[in-house]
Design a protein that fits this description.
By secondary structure, the protein is mostly beta strands. The protein has one domain. It contains 1 helix and 6 strands, in the order E-E-E-E-H-E-E. A 3-stranded antiparallel β-sheet has the order 1-5-4, with no helix packed on it. The N and C termini lie far apart (34 Å).
């Protein structure tokens, strides 16, 4: 299972919503390449907006995740209810790919 979470301040993206991306990472690392050089691959899964705060973040297969995120927000001194969670879940990600959440910004 591949899971990518994006915590963003409420309203940061306006009407835009993050979308899932699967990029080929066989010949280069997409995290180090500019997006114009990424080789996107087809993907059926879509990103979901799960809501605000820590109540939105449980993962059935990782029961310690919510507690870990609670400690992260506490250490940063941030109020988790001021953040909304967007999640991409890919049950069987293709080997040699990199998963990401991307937000198309206005031009």
């Amino acid at each position: 299972m591949g899971i990518v979470d994006l915590w963003a301040p409420v309203g940061l993206f306006g009407t835009a919503r993050p979308r899932g991306l699967s990029a080929c990472a066989m010949f280069a690392d997409p995290a180090r390449e500019p997006p114009t050089r990424w080789r996107p691959l087809p993907m059926a899964e879509t990103a979901e907006r799960l809501g605000r705060g820590l109540d939105a973040c449980p993962i059935a297969g990782a029961p310690e995740y919510s507690g870990a995120m609670e400690r992260v927000f506490a250490r940063l001194g941030w109020d988790p209810s001021a953040y909304e969670l967007h999640r991409l879940c890919v049950e069987y990600p293709v080997m040699g790919t990199s998963l990401a959440l991307v937000v198309d910004l206005p031009e």
